Amino acid sequence: MARSADFSRKVVEALAARAGYRCSFPGCEMPTTGPSSESRLGVSRIGMACHIYAAADGPAARRVDQTRSMAELKAIENGVWMCYTHGKLIDTDECTYSPELLKDWRDLAERRAHLRLEFSEAVDLSRVASLPLARAKIDLFEPDTGHRIEGFLRASAMAQSWGNDEALGTRDLLIELARNALTHGRATGIRLEATVDSIHLSDDGQVFPLKELLRSAGKRGGAAALEAISTMHDQLVVFHRATENGNLVTITRIEMSPESPALSPCSFRLTGGWPNATSAIEFVESHGECETVFLFPTLGILSYSDLFKLSDEIKQRGMSGRDIVLAMQAHSAGILNFVEREMPNVRLVELKRRPPA
After folding, report:
1. Domain membership of residue 342 as a residue range
2. What percent of the chain has pLDDT over 90?
3. 59 and 147, same domain (yes or no)
4. Is residue 4 part of a domain?
5. Which of 261, 274, 294, 325 stands the most exposed, by the fewest C-beta atoms within 10 Å?
């Protein structure tokens, strides 16, 4: 016998209000309520409370979980607010619109609604805070998959979380890397995955460090996309790591909390200021498969003496050719000049704190 678990009016109203009465589908944010011409008290509503796990378990239901009780299916934790168009869309494909993805969309919509209250509609929210990405994943097997990469980034809510320009630049780079891996690197497949803090592209092709794109005499699309990321998006860091099966490229935005976990297998989080400079350089030395290594001070502040110690370690170990990114809080012109003069292989970038959730 089929079960059915409709939301209560109280849950429906709470879902709508917590999303700011806007659709939670990334890139839509359609207002879902407004005045009706029927009367002075009339209200038009074009939003719907959608179940993450299906309210009914009939043959047309999506995301069915028989282990969930009726109370769980009716609870607000099982809901996401959508406009009618996208509410119907998410019920057509349970593979693309997974429960985990819909939960991330709901959380991001509520975070954006909170930021609107705090900073007002006039503020570009992507400049106010770096929101987490929605977790998404796709596999690619054909070189001409730009539209699928576009859909993947839309699902991750990258434009809403990191900014539209960053999303477009990342899309350009992912397209070129995917084509290079499948055509020149002889990869049989590619996986794109969005985690909370990063975009990952992995392939099973020949190992090909990103620096080779920039060194090539006949630089083309891949080099242009990588150079654009480096010069136009200083908050984006691109890592390459050789793996047992091929390549792993990670794109991370460094506007995040110092309490966050390591950004990638090629990053090292310093604790307690700079007492472990030797450990950091040992990490760089032991991760030769990492084209770029990211050093992330927990406190976000390093002094001149800290930088002298780092510089000495790099020179003593013959590591002046390694590409190292050092992220800190706001730094003085003097610090910038010191790094440029004494540590030419180190890129110093400014770490901005992510506001609390």
Report:
1. 254-357
2. 38
3. no
4. no
5. 261
